[in-house]
Amino acid sequence: MTLVQLEYLVAVDTHRHFATAAEHCFVTQPTLSMQLQKLEEELGVQLFDRSRVPVRPTEIGKEIITQARIVLAESKKLQEIVHNQKQELSGELRIGVIPTLAPYLIPLFITGFMQKYPLVRVVVQELLTEQIVEKLNHELIDVGLLVTPLEDKSIRELPLFYESFVAYINPNHPLAKNETISASELDVEDMWVLNEGHCFRSQVLNICNRGGVARSEEGGYFDYKSGSLETLKRIVETQHGLTLLPELSVMEIADEKLKLVHPFQHPQPQREVSLAVHRSFLKKKLVEALKEEIIASVPAAIRERKKEQVITIKS
Known about the structure:
This is LysR substrate-binding domain-containing protein. The chain is an alpha/beta fold. The chain contains ten helices and ten strands. The chain has three domains: 3-83, Winged helix-like DNA-binding domain superfamily/Winged helix DNA-binding domain (Arc Repressor Mutant, subunit A); 91-161 and 272-310, D-Maltodextrin-Binding Protein, domain 2, CATH 3.40.190; 162-269, Periplasmic binding protein-like II (D-Maltodextrin-Binding Protein, domain 2), CATH 3.40.190. A hairpin with a 6-residue loop joins strand 1 (48-49) and strand 2 (56-57). The longest helix is centred in the N-terminal third of the chain and has 25 residues, at 59-83. The protein is elongated, with a radius of gyration of 23 Å.
């Protein structure tokens, strides 16, 4: 049994296709298949059900693959020990970030981070929370930037800051006259929310405790499925109703639109923004440097805020 065979094993599990796995391992498919066959012969078990498309691991294969990932992670730690002795941080840092954070948080820290660590190649992907967790577990990204708690034992959460929710209200809405609002005043029948799959949608509905469809004051229904907070802002501005937004999304809003922003009464509902890594994660110095840069880059009012009323992702 070799580390190379374990790498091929994990690659097939990740991509569920022998040819694709071989391509990512920079070998030919016959070479990869032969090495996996040797591994199966040595262990005396079948690791994959090759009759299915895409290929899937057998029950015993799942257990062996889990252990193989641990072995490979531990072997990489040996390289990391040597790498960490170098004065400058370098290498690739693959970050997955949820869409309701990416456009507002990434610009705050990315320039400063790259100036401090010019030898680091940063690769950022916008992903939903479930995709980030899956890619962390399959070592396809190094760190996730998302909202917690996740309640996933395979993931380690590193809280960064607590961001308040605010209401964004059309001037003609009855609540627009209130300087602050409370969750009890919200009616989801007036509210625009994100598509299914966004954790922010779940948090908004948890604040309101129920769901619905936005209704126009002129009569009829306008049902719009959006994956963008910026689109929801435009709809509120030009149509009717309201939406809930994370605090960072309104930090640089135009002065003429500030009147649409209404904070909640205390205790304000918050979301916990964290870095997420796999339990056996590598690149610890890079992740720690990223954490420090993000915390330093957010506005002081957010950075210094204490945990009060964190809204969970689960309903």
